Amino acid sequence: MIFKQAFLALALAGGVLSLQAQHRPAPKKTAAKADPAMAASIKRGAVVYKNVCITCHQADGGGVPNMNPPLIKTQYVLGDKARLAHIVLAGLAEPIEIDGNDYKQHMPAQNYLTDQQVADVLTYVRNSFGNKASAVQVAEVKAVRATLPK
Ligand code: HEC
Questions:
Q1: Helix 138-146 and helix 81-90: axis angle, to 10°?
Q2: CB of 138 closer than 6 A to ligand 1?
Q3: Are 56 and 68 in contact (CB under 8 A)?
Q4: Is residue 134 part of a domain?
Q5: Which of 48, 49, 53 to mutate to test the pocket of ligand 1 (most atoms within 8 A of CB)?
Q6: CATH code of the domain containing 119
Q7: Structure confidence at residue 24 as a pLDDT band (50, 70, 90)
């Protein structure tokens, strides 16, 4: 009799455990964790950002209101990757408005950076400061550079 009860208790416990296992939420995967190549690119991109972009766009990507625009969830950062690569390779000299602030200073071209460095820094920016977007590939940067005057 006592054996039967023990068996029942075990069976119940087992059932509860397996139910819990089924209901455990899937571990949160970040894009970077799922893709080691992307994680490495982000790491290299952080170095480029610190060397090149940080003076204007600041450590937190927040920019300087009415001088240097933020890189936080803007349509330029999260949108078309070719346009984004074009901004870094050719600079930007057109008045833009972000979050109600006007920007009309020119961003100088950073075309001395290699295709790899541009891909890395943009992958970093697209996955920092609260941004989350796909990696920028070297081939995508290369294609944009090919359209620019030498
Ligand atoms: C000398 C200052 C300066 C540096 C260095 C600089 N930027 Fe900019 N950036 C600007 C300014 C000013 C604008 C706005 C230009 C305009 O309105 O025409 C801008 C615009 C942008 C934009 C589009 C607008 C937005 O905020 O989404 C992106 C993206 C961007 N920069 C990324 C970068 C990246 C990445 C680097 C480093 C590789 C970099 N910038 C380096 C000054 C700078």
A1: 60
A2: no
A3: yes
A4: yes
A5: 53
A6: 1.10.760.10
A7: low
